[in-house]
Amino acid sequence: MDDFLQKIQNIKDQKLAELNKSITEIQNRELEPIRREELSLKNIVKQKIEQNEDLKVSRAKFLEKSSKMGIQSAAKKDLIEKFVDDYLNNLFKDKSRLKDLLAKNIEKIKDEKGTLNIDENSYNLVKSVIKDSWDIKIDNHLKGFIFESQAVSVELTEAILRKEIYDNNKTALNQILFE
């Protein structure tokens, strides 16, 4: 009987082994898509974490660069304004250059009849060029002149000089200051 019991035990063990093998195959077959999805999700999470880190670094670099550009822009603006101020101060101190500039612009006005608003200093420099037919008004806040007639309007004021100096020298100044 022992032999019979042993055969039954062997058959039982064989059937259990086959059942375990079959269950393992079914589990592997059923779990494989889930494992692939798990791996895919892990990869996606890893990518998102890396992208997040890259984004943080990128933002920090952008903010740093933006801050530097803002500081450079403010410094550039200050330097250019100082250049224009110095240029104008030198022009107003050099009476011959100022006289030539004013005279050339006043001579642009042909035989017009109109009103000349001029500051006293400018008037004293160019009174030989000014025509008697003009109505002259002294305005010491003007720093330059404004001529108006029905056909012509000519202005040469500190604000216009400042703008022209800046516009004419902007590119060269930027190259000198920020190479």
Automatic annotation (TrEMBL):
Protein name: Uncharacterized protein
Organism of derivation: Candidatus Dojkabacteria bacterium
